[in-house]
Amino acid sequence: MAIVVVLDMPGMTQAQYEQSAEKVAGRPGPVKSPADWPVAGLVSHTSAPTDDGWLVVDVWESEEAFRQFGETLLPILRELGLADVQPRTYPVFNVVTR
User: Fold this and answer.
1) d(Cα 98, Cα 91) in Å, to the nearest integer?
2) What is the edge-to-edge ordering of all strands in the sheet holding 3-10?
3) CA diameter of the chain
4) DSSP letter at 31?
């Protein structure tokens, strides 16, 4: 079952987001495709600044795919000083894309 993952990260800057994206992709530059992720299963990725940090909303094909990605992501966030990030997950009801 597909899931939505919400990461609300108070204190995260755009520079930290860009650093994390480069570490996830394993190369310089922004992530532009699900193929840039180190594990399969990403359906969509959206990020945005908030009043006090950064927000990421992903859709994953399954909770297991996101768990595998979390093994890569959480150490990266800790390295950037964001050790307290707690992903919230929800079952997907509907996904609409272009």
Assistant:
1) 21
2) 42-49, 53-60, 3-10, 88-91
3) 35
4) -
Q: How far apart are CA 58 and CA 3, in angstroms?
A: 8
Give the end-to-end CA distance of the chain in Å, rounded to a whole number.
Answer: 21
DSSP labels, 60-79: ES-HHHHHHHHHHHHHHHHH
User: What's the pLDDT tens digit per position in 33-53?
Assistant: 888 888 999 999 999 999 999
Q: Are 39 and 65 in contact (CB under 8 A)?
A: yes
What is the reported pTM? 0.91
**Would you call 14 helix, strand, or coil by DSSP?**
helix
